[in-house]
Amino acid sequence: MKGMRWMSENNGEDKKQSSLQRYLYAADKERLRTLLEEMSQIAAASIETAVGALRSGDAVLAEKVIEGDDLIDEKEEQIDQECLYSIAMRQPMREDLRFVYSVMKIIVDLERIGDQSVNIAMNVRDLPEGITFPEEMIPFVEKMAEENIKMIGEVMQAFAGEDETVICTARERRKLIKETRSNAVSMLDKIIASEKACENDRMRLFCTVILTLRHLSRISDHVLNLAERVSFIATGISPLTLKRAQEKSQPKTLFDKEG
Amino acid sequence: MKGMRWMSENNGEDKKQSSLQRYLYAADKERLRTLLEEMSQIAAASIETAVGALRSGDAVLAEKVIEGDDLIDEKEEQIDQECLYSIAMRQPMREDLRFVYSVMKIIVDLERIGDQSVNIAMNVRDLPEGITFPEEMIPFVEKMAEENIKMIGEVMQAFAGEDETVICTARERRKLIKETRSNAVSMLDKIIASEKACENDRMRLFCTVILTLRHLSRISDHVLNLAERVSFIATGISPLTLKRAQEKSQPKTLFDKEG
Does B92 touch chain A if contact means CB atoms closer than 8 Å? Predict the structure, then answer.
């Protein structure tokens, strides 16, 4: 097991990289930056469109999000291929390899953000006829979406500048998103408590609300992952190391991991 | 954009791999097989333990699943590092690179299976005092878990033998899991319809049931992904290509992508 160390230190096992390889690698890196920027914009747009569909109960718009997911999957595959090609042909070492590896991990989280938008859109599409998302819940959902989109923008800006401090901003924003979710759940509890009958359609609607809040909360976890990857590019400190340091200093939360 | 093609064909851009590199790569590959086998067993065990906790309402067992997830994350990081090391140092090409790349993707799905088990466990842990999972739903949940675990075993066996036919078995099993979920939802609808009052705790319980079914259904999606990766190792046909072929021949399902 070589651990993350060999991406940070010169352990004497390096292959020599020719100046042509270095030149070609620099071009690869620029290209990867552009592709990743594009993919992040598609992911952010998917959140916005999904929440737009939810607000207006627009099944056609929801379908657009669901179909648009193929584009994200294709981008992921394309970027994966370019990363592997670069590793195999340019033989980047240390910080360069760290960069390519991080890109391969960042796209996994971007793809999962897209998946969560699809989930929100599917919930909109599958609402029973005549049932709409509760008006009182919309502001919470919009707030969570907005913060997530801002967070993605900030992380991508930090990616461009290899700025590791983004992790602090990202943690704060994620905290705010989790708080908004928690307030939304309290509000929902009140709505449920005031229900007179226990109807199947209403039950399903409440589940949909809980799920939507989960999906939006889960997006913020993925964006924090992105921030950790950006920080890793800049510092060489792995996300798992960061996570362990974080866990020691903070109590565990009750929020789930997925879905 | 080089696409998946350069992992299948000799496009004249190959670096020469020395016989020492070939020898070392073969050793890497054996090691990756062993590590992946270990990781898949941990993932399968997490499903079994999570459903065990659910059946008995055992919060301590649930906590064990939640804490055990760190082990899966560590395995993922370890395998990732070994894959990158192998790509950079041994310069595998074509089917060898395809193998390493597929391993890097397989571990993402194994990690996500672990996440879903954690979600199930968290739902068990967070059930209100005195509320247990509905007895009538247990057989469905157990059936889904059992099929998922079988499916993982079959896929890993196919991985060992680089057998692409596993994709058919996996599709069949996943279909069975989705049908079981669908039957479970019908049963739940009946339970809800027979409720007299609309209590918050009962509401939460029903949501937990719906979510648990989702998590188990979602696991089967990840296992199918594994099967597609195994098939890619054997044939060089990418999962995205497979998916497109599949979509053309089958109507879209209503099942969601995540959570």
Answer: yes
